[in-house]
Write a structure and sequence with these properties.
Blueprint (H helix, E strand, L loop, with lengths): L1 E2 L8 H14 L7 H14 L5 E3 L4 H10 L4 E4 L5 H9 L3 E4 L22 E7 L8 H11 L2 E5 L7 E2 L2 E2 L6 E5 L12 E4 L3 H10 L21 H10 L3 H18 L5 E3 L6 E2 L5 E5 L2 H13 L2 E2 L20 H9 E4 L7 H15 L1
Parallel strand pairs: 1-14, 3-4, 3-5, 5-6, 6-9
Antiparallel strand pairs: 2-10, 7-8, 7-12, 9-10, 11-13, 13-15
Helix pairs in contact: 1-7, 2-7, 3-4, 3-6, 8-11, 9-11
The protein binds pyridoxal-5'-phosphate.
Pyridoxal-5'-phosphate binds next to α4.
Length: 358
């Protein structure tokens, strides 16, 4: 069976080496040595000043929204994973959906200003499939209207834009280290902010708001990562260049099979060093997509309809149709892509797709 993704397993000896340290330290959670070591290594690997590693990639969104969005309206993308919208609603804010760009698939920055009202506090946009939003224009709009910017950068591990980590843009960026993501800690995530005060606020926020045993900085939750999860991250990190190489080869091979007549491929924003985290393919019609999916499934191959349906159709939001999002989400399929997917399998998958679509 070939699935859309598969976690990377580092050699078990690498993980055991860290587990031995945990037993020696007799420390399982509450900011042990391994999470501190992981944060230090991430700072130098990614080229960032601040990071707080957390227990998943959703709580960083909650904590950032709690700090910045203040229960207001949050301008957001309908083309993302459900966590982007659910966090907004969970934090008692109102999601205001703005359509996406037809080629980059990120929020269409030219449509943001029309959605701003006196209640707008924040823009929460996703760098979808690791493809950066138009961060310059979004920053201009935010400055002009005094709004905060949060990027759901769950897909962006290792992505650079104009020579610097994409995590350096916006007031806050978040990432997911879930098992199925590019870099992982089984379950995990992180928050990044260049603003020291905000960084501190979010640090307190991820540990119940504690400022010492009996004092509280403000409201908080529990988003702490354990030493066991950190050990996984430390074991995976040394293999990032192997992981990226393998994924690049797979994406290049897929690219060589699909022409621009029967398919549309993701357009990566100029001046981006991408991380090959997903391989989305847009079909001529939803019918073609469904036929293709059926043929692949019959061959024990399971791509996924990321992202479908539009988040603006969730049962707990004010539902809204958005021309580009509704169209793209009905025709886009993410093909299998993971470290040990063989090039032979990529060829088999591609040929099955071509049979249905040419
Ligand atoms: C994976 C993902 C999340 C959630 O991350 P978890 O670590 O699973 O909590 C949020 N946003 C996007 C866009 C994602 O793909």
């Amino acid at each position: 069976m070939i699935t859309v993704t598969k976690p990377f397993f580092p050699p078990i000896e690498d993980y055991q080496k860290y587990i031995v340290k945990i037993w020696e330290n007799q420390w399982l959670t509450n900011r042990g040595n391994l999470v501190v070591e992981l944060e230090d290594k991430l700072k130098s690997y990614l080229g960032i000043n601040n990071v707080i590693v957390m227990t998943n990639g959703t709580l960083p969104l909650h904590i950032a929204l709690s700090a910045l969005a203040k229960g207001g309206e949050v301008i957001t993308t309908p083309f993302s994973y459900v966590a982007t919208t659910s966090s907004i609603v969970w934090e008692k804010c109102t999601p205001i959906f703005v359509d996406i760009h037809p080629e980059y698939l990120t929020i269409d920055e030219t449509k943001i200003e029309a959605a701003i009202t006196p209640r707008t506090t924040t823009i929460l946009a996703t760098h979808v499939y690791g493809n950066p939003c138009n961060v310059e224009i979004i920053e201009e709009i935010a400055k002009k209207h005094n709004l905060k910017v949060i990027y759901d950068a769950a897909h962006c591990f290792g992505v650079t834009y104009k020579g610097t980590s994409v995590f350096n843009y916006g007031d806050v960026s978040t990432c997911s280290f879930h098992a199925t993501k590019l870099f992982h800690t089984a379950e995990g995530g992180a928050v990044f902010s260049q603003d020291e005060e905000l960084h501190n606020q979010m640090f307190f926020g991820h540990n119940f708001g504690h400022n010492g045993p009996h004092e509280y900085f403000g409201i908080g939750t529990n988003a702490k990562i354990s030493e066991l999860q950190s050990a996984m991250g430390l074991s995976v990190l040394p293999y990032m260049s192997d992981i990226l190489d393998s994924r690049r080869r797979i994406c290049e091979l897929y690219d060589s099979f699909f022409d621009n007549e029967n398919f549309t491929k993701l357009k990566i924003r100029e001046e981006t060093k991408w991380n090959y985290c997903y391989y989305p393919l847009i079909f001529k019609s939803e019918k073609k997509l469904l036929q293709t999916q059926q043929v692949l499934n019959e061959n024990n191959i399971f791509p996924r309809r990321y992202f479908y349906p539009s988040l603006a159709n969730l049962p707990y939001v004010e539902q809204k149709s958005l021309t580009i999002t509704d169209d793209i989400s009905s025709r886009i399929l993410c093909l299998p892509l993971y470290y040990d997917l063989t090039l032979e399998d990529v060829e088999v998958i591609s040929k099955l797709i071509l049979n249905v679509n040419s």
